[in-house]
Specification:
Two copies of one chain form a homodimer. With about 110 residues, the first copy, chain A, is mostly helical. Chain A is about 55% helix and about 10% strand. Chain A is built from five helices and two strands; from the N terminus they run H-H-H-E-E-H-H. The first copy, chain A, has a two-stranded antiparallel sheet with strand order 1-2. In chain A, a hairpin with a 2-residue loop joins strand 1 and strand 2. In chain A, helix 1 packs across helix 3. Chain A is globular, with a radius of gyration of 16 Å. Chain A starts with 11 loop residues before the first helix and ends with a helix. The relative contact order of chain A is 0.14. Chains A and B meet through helix 1, helix 4 and helix 5 of A and helix 1, helix 4 and helix 5 of B. The structure holds a DNA duplex (30 and 30 nucleotides).
DNA sequence: TTGAGTGTATTAGTGTAATAATACACATAG
DNA sequence: CTATGTGTATTATTACACTAATACACTCAA
């Protein structure tokens, strides 16, 4: 469900946060959906459970996830759900800009990359 | 010449390394070119000189840069120089894949993003 | 020779990411 | 009630990124 890359330099809990944010905005995780358990994800990606927990806790602070004592974390009812296309494109913009910058440094057109 | 983003989570010295690698592969920094001084770059980006030095040192270990005592760092004579288009595209691939993955999580086509 | 310019080694300190091992409070099915 | 499943707080430890302040060896122009 998620893909983590420890060698990328980006903290694991941040990678997880970004992916969950996108899956919610993309509508693949509608409000009310239960997320994989901390221990399950930790085992699957050979990562410490507290690292997953950190991502969940921060997303709850953002209002995207909802805590249910003793029960799995769920996508918050107040979460935006499937965002309109414009907002989704906006969320993707930083990565597009980054790719464009890299292409320019390589003397390639953005079209070449795509 | 370079753009550093401390908030991205990617270590600064790594960001710098990636950009120098691309500028060399893109031919914008041909072999023999002198790089900006450590202190100059550090001042420009409000960063510690040793952070720049670390990037330079690692790139020298890779064979991309050349050390000249008392003189500026230069692009190594043995550096690949302007790489063929195929190799440049290959160097860009990881970022393209990353963008594609993000687009998919947002339920967007890669075409939408580009 | 002096002085300003290179990169770098050194030492010390701060903050963060991640791990490890427990332990706790709660929910729910048996 | 019990067992198993949630998430989380805690403490300690390791590693890394970055900063800071010096100091050094070297080059080169004045």
């Amino acid at each position: 469900m998620f893909s983590l890359h420890p060698e990328s330099g980006v903290p694991l809990y941040r990678q997880l946060m970004e992916q969950i944010r996108r899956l919610i905005a993309g509508g693949q995780l509608p409000p009310g959906t239960a997320l994989p358990s901390v221990r399950e994800l930790a085992l699957e990606h050979a990562v410490n459970p507290m690292t997953i927990s950190k991502a969940y806790a921060l997303l709850e602070a953002e209002g995207l996830l909802e805590r249910n004592r003793g029960k799995p974390m769920t996508v918050a009812a107040g979460a935006p759900g499937a965002a309109p296309l414009a907002r989704r494109l906006q969320q993707l913009e930083p990565q597009v800009m980054q790719l464009a910058a890299a292409a320019k440094q390589l003397e390639l057109s953005f079209r070449d990359a795509a």
